[in-house]
Amino acid sequence: MTLLSVEGLRVEFPTDEGPVEAVDGVDFTVDRGEVVCLVGETGSGKTAACEALTRIADGAAVDGSVRFDGRELTDCDDRTLRSVRGDRIAHVFQQPGTSLDPVYSVGDQIIEAIRLHDDASRNEARARAVSLLEDVGIAAPAERIDAYPHQLSGGMRQRVAIAVALAADPDLLVADEPTTALDVTLQAGLLELLRELSAERDLAVLLVTHDLGVVAELADRVVVLYGGRVMERGGVETLFERPAHPYTRLLFESLRGTADGSDDRPTPADDGCPFRSECPYAVPDCAEGRPSFHAADDEPAHEVACVFYGPDYDIGTLGGEGS
Ligand code: SF4
User: Fold this and answer.
1) What average pLDDT does range 181-191 have in this prediction?
2) pLDDT in tens, 128-167
3) pLDDT at 105 over 80
4) Which among 16, 28, 55, 69 is least surrounded, fewest beta carbons within 10 Å?
5) Is the minimum distance from the CB of 229 to ligand 1 under 6 angstroms?
6) How far does residue 264's CA lie from ligand 1's centre (Å)?
7) Is the pTM of this model over 0.85?
8) Mean pLDDT along residues 45-66
């Protein structure tokens, strides 16, 4: 069942040189209990799209539709939005320390999060906080609950941040590069934890990452972004086996280290297909408005925004595994 449906999402940030469009008409959905990964390089709009869901980015102008559990969020009042934020949609950020307050014990922070969304007594909330710490894999939670963030390792702080996010029993966890700051062993443990939590709690997870290992480990579906737009979307196995969009292929090759992933690349084109300034297959039609989504293959949910998958072109021209 669809929990989150995002359609035509646009996000603009004011700058001294005028507004900059970070997200330019993005569509995707997340079902209950599903893990969807937003994948793309820096500046692709994945973080801006996530922050726009509950309008947590300062100064951003948000347009389009964000329907969460049947309720439109883009035009709801601040009170409604506050009740959704944290209560139904929780965020976990890249740096484990970002969302934790260094002057309060981790227990106090989880207890406060529980009591913000529930009228539990302090003792009840403390018992639940211990249980949450146990759920996120903190050893000796009854003792660790009184620790301060600086007394915990980076991996433990990120687990505590997840415990705070889960305190209100949300339906959707939005996690922005949650494992990037951790070493490989801690990353693996945290990914396993997110997978377990999703399955046990029927928790939907929207995960922002540029790490294909994370995608392969966790995702049910993948949405590939470039220049603030969706280039391709589909099931994780399909995308890994048959990446169809020329940008997805380049991204996968560069992230795997088999292609040049240097920063010295053209910026996305403002009109037409944003990838056309570096696409080896670009034809004049690629500059004529935004390419529509077309089926990439027989897989119903595998769609690609590229003119070569439309009726006027032969996808054999693109070569590679996706054609
Ligand atoms: S629409 Fe054109 S420029 Fe964009 S990926 Fe397809 S062929 Fe390349």
Assistant:
1) 78
2) 999 999 988 899 999 999 999 999 988 889 889 989 999 9
3) yes
4) 16
5) no
6) 20
7) yes
8) 91
**Ligand 1 pocket check: which of 230, 248, 275 to mutate, most ligand atoms within 8 Å of Cβ?**
275
Ligand 1 close to Cβ of residue 250 (< 6 A): no
Tell me the DSSP string of 12-72.
Answer: EE--TTS-EEEEEEEEEEEETT-EEEEE--TTSSHHHHHHHHTT-STT-EEEEEEEETTEE
Query: Looking at ligand 1, which residue's alpha carbon is closest to its atom 3?
Result: 276
Q: Which CATH architecture has domain 1-88+171-265?
A: 3-Layer(aba) Sandwich (3.40)
CA of 189 to the centre of ligand 1 (A): 38
Calculate the CA dihedral of residues 232, 233, 235, 236 and round it to 10 degrees.
60
Planar angle of CA 297, 298, 300, nearest 5 degrees: 100
- Establish whether residue 6 lines the binding site of ligand 1, counting it when its CB lies within 6 angstroms of any ligand atom: no
Give the pLDDT score at 255: 72
The finding on whether 282 has its CB within 6 A of some atom of ligand 1 is yes
Contact 124, 197 (CB under 8 A): no
Residue 223 pLDDT exceeds 70? yes
More confident residue, 181 or 104: 104
CB burial of 94-118 (b: ≥16 within 10 Å; e: otherwise) equals bbbbebbeeeebbbbbbbebbbeee
Task: Please tell me if the CB atom of residue 307 comes closer than 6 angstroms to any atom of ligand 1.
Answer: yes
Question: Collapsing DSSP states into helix, strand and coil, what is residue 234?
Answer: strand
Residue 226: CB within 6 Å of ligand 1? no
Residue 250 exposed, middle or buried by CB count within 10 Å (0-12, 13-18, 19+): buried
For the record, the structure tokens of 272 come out as: 């037409």
Average pLDDT over residues 304-309: 96
* DSSP state string for 147-173: --GGGS-HHHHHHHHHHHHHTT--SEE
